Amino acid sequence: MKFKIPNSINLKEFQQWDFFSVLIMILLFLRVLVDRAGFGAVIGLALLGCFLLLLVFKLRLPKYLLFFSSIFFLLIGYAFINAAVIHGEPLYTIRGVIRYFSYFAMFILAYYSKVSFKQIFLLYTIIVLIESALAFFQFLFMGMPRPSGTFINSNHFSYFLVPYFSILLIVYKRYLPAFFVFLLSAFLGGMGGVISLLLVLFLFLSHYARKWQKVIAILIFPIFIAGAGLLMQNRVKELTDVTAISERLAENKAGGGSSLVWRIVTWKLMYDELVEKDGLYTGMGLEYASLISPYFLESSIREPHNDYLRILLEFGLFGFVLFLYGMYYGLFKLRKNAIEQSSSYYYALYVALAAIYLGMIVGNIVVLSTLWWLFLTIIAIMHKEEKQIKSKAFV
């Protein structure tokens, strides 16, 4: 299958949509549109309302999905109760419950929708084009050094591009547009996003490229690095102070310096605070690592920018182990489906998920609803279409 802008739109495909399919597409678009404005929670509540309607009128969850979702909800419920008991802020803590529950709700709604993979990717493309145009406008006419479109910041936009880059490169094999997406990520200035895209590129070449293509790739790869370096000169220069890490760690001084330096020092301070408050095993509850939380960490003025540490802070070691298992299980299933079905679609999702996990080392991705809503929608649609193919083959 090749991706191209259609000469005409087949309205019959869209006429097959039901009420929930239309709502999914609208909510996905609106969630990105209002990200910077801070109305994400409103869209999240609207999504949960749609999910409840689906639950009442037509939803029957498969048993295997009920099993895995029950573990997820028990963990979220525990972290909510833990935060409410320790900090006495149950109303604010509900914010985190809504966020994580919305991930599950979006997956289920997408699974039972009539939206196809091509249609959701078309919406993805429209969003990327709109956000790219806004980012360039902000840079050229508003003087923003790190534009972000309607996203809260440029890092969120960079990570949002990871699945799109993977699908564009692996499924549709549109190499030039994929290169422009890579340059766009570098232009946005997020090093975590660029590193994630480089992992996507590496896994693509290691799996699909022939010997002569790998030779060409070795020659072309420096062009990607040079392009990223040119667009991120200031960020690269910041790395010159990494030698000060040991000194800052000894002094417990997190402020100032490059983003990598303050991150590493902040991680240590946060971990020390967690141990000091006897929260290592049980965690300190949902939203403990959220900057706007009324019970945010005392040791920092910034969020962790490390999702593994965030999970440890909020859910403790037990939740951390379950999180790692969930990561492994997700990668394992996607890779298994990619191999068994020789599916470029599943491999693209596997690669994107691996790249997102890499970005989690230096990013706040687990709370990035704009990314997870769309990515989980794509996974759900792929799972649905796979089930439909199997049922037809069985009949």
UniProtKB/TrEMBL annotation:
All residue ranges annotated as the O-antigen ligase-related domain in the record: 179-324
Coiled coil ranges (UniProt) are: none
Q: What is its main location?
A: membrane
What InterPro entries does this protein map onto?
O-antigen_ligase-rel_domated, WaaL-like
> Per its UniProt entry, which superkingdom is the organism in?
Bacteria
Q: Can the keyword Membrane be found in this entry's annotation?
A: yes
Its name, as the record gives it, is O-antigen ligase-related domain-containing protein
- Organism listed in the record: Cyclobacterium marinum (strain ATCC 25205 / DSM 745 / LMG 13164 / NCIMB 1802)
